Amino acid sequence: MVVIGVDPHKDVLVAVAVDGNGRQLELRDSPARPRGFKNLLSWASRFQRRTWAVEDVRHVAGGFVRFLLAAGEDVVWVPTRMSSDYRRKVRASGKSDPIDALACAREALAEHLPAAVPGTEARSVKMLLDHREDLVGEMVRMRSRLRWHLHDIDPAGGALAEVAAVFFA
Fold it and tell me: pLDDT digit string (tens) for 2-45?
């Protein structure tokens, strides 16, 4: 069995293949775009039994994981803290993408990690709720800023009270 650890980034995916003992077999990187996804899958096809261990940075790796799941691949999520714990454990100084990808692969061998599952409606609802929270937060920030500007212009609140009443009703 081969585990392919992936350290995802906005522009590049770094993948390290390890055997069942955790020994590094190959290192590969590819653009974090659909063409790069296909290149990594093509490269990985040489390994008969494989599992992908992707660092759990869903806003960056989500498209890649959805691609793998649609292709019928086995994928597990590796919590981000595990790669930093791994660097401390093996005394690897600094942070590098190949070290993080290797950590993902080895942690997937050592731990029972949650399998990635295809997206559901819950994912879409969560994205909409997150967007709504962002919009509400922005509205509150803008209203507070306007209130302070109105107070700065007219501390007594005389002529601008009517304007404020419209915005803060």
Answer: 999 999 999 999 999 999 888 999 999 999 999 999 999 999 99
CB-based contact 4:105 (threshold 8 Å)? yes
Structure token pair of residue 102: 């290797």
Tokens for 9, please give them.
Answer: 């980034």
Burial environment of residue 9 by CB neighbours within 10 A (0 to 12, 13 to 18, 19 or more): middle
Same domain, 130 and 95: no
Q: List Cα–Cα distances, 163 to 11, 86, 95, 146, in angstroms.
A: 47, 58, 54, 11
pLDDT score for 138: 95
Does 115 reside within a domain? no
pLDDT the model gives residue 119: 65
In 3-state terms, what secondary structure has residue 14?
strand
CB distance 51 to 111 below 8 Å: no
Question: What's the structural domain count of the chain?
Answer: 2
- How many Cβ atoms are within 10 Å of 6's Cβ, its own excluded? 28
